What does this fold into?
Amino acid sequence: MVEMKKNGVSEADIIAAAAVRLAGERGWRNLPLDDIAAEAGIKPGTMMRHYLCRPEILDGFERMIDRRMLAGAAAGDVDDKPRDRLFDIIMERFAALLPYRDGVRRITRELPFDPASGMVLAASMPRSLARMFAGARLSLDGPTMPLKLAVLGAVYLATFRVWLADESQDLGKTMATLDKQLDRSMSLIGGTFGRSKPSEPVHSDGPPDVVAPEPPAPAAPAQKAPAPKATRTRKRPAAPK
It folds into this structure.
């Protein structure tokens, strides 16, 4: 199927972004597909070519965020530590999620009542973790890699819970938590997360034009205050007192 695009954004990404935005206003588990199509400005029949149910849309959203995370990843310096590159790539993912945080919060709260969506997110986590390793230019090989993936998953989820409530302008609480969790995890695994790959640009797993720009939100009658943008830095933040 040829993927149609609006302003350089795939229809699938427009639908996924609209669905999560709408979830922030109206909830997730009872959100009608026709309402999602209307929010995305796409006919219901067109949407059915991409997604047949809300869990599929949620999987599409996770894939979109992964692509944006990788699109924002920098090759970095050859001398960068793997731990610092992991810090950067995880903060790139939180930056990609930031415009949709209200919807992500609502979906997270409703997951206990929506097993299908919960299973989709659980299944997508190993894929996202593998892409974090790819974005940090770390090789996914060796007998200890399953353990390292599991440890990184724990790091991400612990930081994610802080990010959900972090309203600071620079996401300082999120960065401090991530910094602390990475230090703890390296003590647990007894060293680094893996061998570095050669320094080179990071590519997503889809066509280059799928990752940008961000799907536009429909015009609203009332102006809302813009969401704070994450300011990421390679300087390790001080742990909270």
Q: What stands out?
A: The chain has a mean pLDDT of 82.
